[in-house]
Inverse folding.
């Protein structure tokens, strides 16, 4: 791979850059952007070692609108995720296979299917919130995770009840917790730490937890193969009915990798976004008041109408603006010599769109550390200025589901329960796998019911 032509190299020693990237990615990016606001080259472990960060909307648009040609959306560079997702996940596929897999799963997360999930989301939110005792601290992120996990299980398997699903839910949470901090996420970035020294070693525990999760998934696949129901419209049924160009159906391994991908991508990110939204709405009384006023006047008999509420939309957008959860797009790899922002890029160079830094740009978002939903009411942002779900060939498959879920769950919680923050200290972002989540999980208490 040629890397002679890459712009604005950060000068800090490579090992130091990698440590900082794992320990405090937000600080790492902000320090780099102070030196080079639009574009810089970082030396990181994980998604390719040398990465060009693009933090300027028009330049990112150039990359993502030609990511099937000049900048290929190669799955190879997402290998960092393969210990969890396997080699057959949509995130690791490329070319035609990638495109077809996306087409196969997309309908489950769009359009009419959303309506079907709305009752489930409202019902689940109430069940989970009812079960929390009054005046006892709980972590908003864990509560949000409980809700988002059940929603994604429903979408993927078509149900979320029964003993196997209880076990699967627990198994997924245990595996996800493995990546809850920078330290526990570090084997993803430093592969030499991926050593199974037995059940008590961190990687050994991960391997065993993953195996328990896989066994449950394979058992479900076996049952479904034995009892085919042509009327089912969940993701697993659609994947099982699909064949490739040679007429071959997907293998158990391929099915497992896709299910795990959708389950993790589909609940971890949304749970984090919801936790941040709850944090800001309760941290800023004026935001909560405005939102409650809008929700009081909304038509609750039609949950789909809640999606169009301007202030609720602005609150969710501002949450994803200030905390874009995923920080970066997946890498795109230069295919032919090209230029970006006046810098030459050689074939083989890996480029990422940095939504974290784009969303912090003072020229787009004055006073960017301030949570101010009104900015989304005052100004229309282009799809590359506000870009929490990426774009182009690898644009998030679950964008519609995530936005729908954020709005509906947040609205339901606010309308029915009175919560307050139980920790006066400000929250701050901390690495959780390849995402950024609230470090303390947003401690809250339920004080009373709303009328
Ligand atoms: C707030 C919640 C979410 C955020 C912030 C988010 C963000 C992202 C981002 C930034 C990407 C990469 C886009 C790119 O490289 O251009 C992505 C890809 C992806 N997301 Fe999401 N996501 C969220 C929720 C979901 C949900 C609910 C699902 C599941 C249904 C999902 C499934 C995926 C998948 C499968 C990909 C890979 C697509 C591919 O490789 O072609 N995400 N997401």
């Amino acid at each position: 791979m040629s890397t002679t032509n890459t712009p604005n190299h950060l000068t800090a020693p490579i090992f130091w850059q990698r440590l900082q990237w794992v320990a405090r990615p937000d600080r790492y990016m902000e320090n780099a952007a102070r030196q080079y606001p639009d574009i810089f080259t970082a030396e990181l472990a994980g998604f390719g070692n040398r990465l060009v960060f693009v933090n300027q909307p028009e330049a990112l648009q150039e990359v993502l609108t030609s990511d099937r040609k000049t900048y290929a959306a190669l799955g190879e560079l997402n290998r960092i995720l393969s210990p969890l997702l396997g080699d057959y996940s949509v995130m690791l596929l490329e070319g035609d296979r990638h495109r077809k897999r996306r087409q196969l799963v997309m309908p489950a997360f769009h359009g009419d299917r959303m309506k079907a999930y709305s009752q489930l989301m409202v019902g689940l939110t109430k069940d989970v919130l009812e079960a929390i005792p009054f005046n006892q601290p709980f972590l908003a992120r864990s509560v949000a995770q409980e809700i988002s996990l059940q929603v994604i299980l429903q979408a993927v398997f078509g149900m979320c009840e029964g003993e196997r699903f209880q076990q699967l839910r627990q198994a997924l949470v245990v595996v996800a917790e493995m990546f809850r901090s920078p330290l526990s996420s570090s084997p993803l970035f430093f592969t030499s730490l991926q050593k199974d020294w037995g059940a008590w070693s961190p990687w050994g525990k991960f391997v065993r937890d993953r195996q328990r999760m896989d066994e449950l998934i394979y058992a479900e696949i076996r049952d479904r193969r034995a009892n085919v129901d042509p009327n089912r419209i969940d993701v697993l049924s659609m994947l099982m009915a699909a064949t490739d160009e040679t007429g071959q159906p997907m293998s158990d391994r391929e099915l497992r990798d896709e299910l795990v991908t959708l389950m993790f991508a589909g609940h971890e990110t949304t749970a984090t976004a919801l936790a941040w939204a709850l944090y800001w709405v309760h941290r800023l009384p004026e935001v909560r008041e405005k939102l409650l006023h809008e929700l009081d006047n909304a038509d609750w008999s039609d949950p789909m109408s809640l999606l169009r509420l301007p202030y609720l939309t602005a609150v969710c957008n501002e949450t994803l603006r200030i905390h874009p959860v995923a920080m970066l797009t997946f890498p795109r790899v230069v295919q032919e010599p090209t230029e970006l922002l006046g810098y030459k890029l050689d074939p083989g160079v890996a480029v990422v769109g940095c939504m974290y830094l784009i969303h912090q740009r003072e020229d787009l978002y004055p006073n960017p550390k301030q949570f101010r939903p009104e900015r989304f009411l005052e100004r229309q942002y282009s799809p590359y200025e506000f870009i929490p779900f990426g774009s182009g060939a690898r644009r998030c498959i679950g964008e519609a589901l995530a936005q729908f879920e954020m709005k509906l769950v947040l609205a339901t919680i606010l309308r029915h329960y009175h919560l307050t923050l139980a920790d006066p200290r400000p929250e701050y972002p901390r690495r959780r796998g390849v995402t950024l989540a609230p470090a303390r999980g947003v401690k809250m208490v339920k004080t009373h019911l709303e009328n």
Remarks:
- The first helix runs from residue 14 to 23.
- The chain has 18 helices and twelve strands.
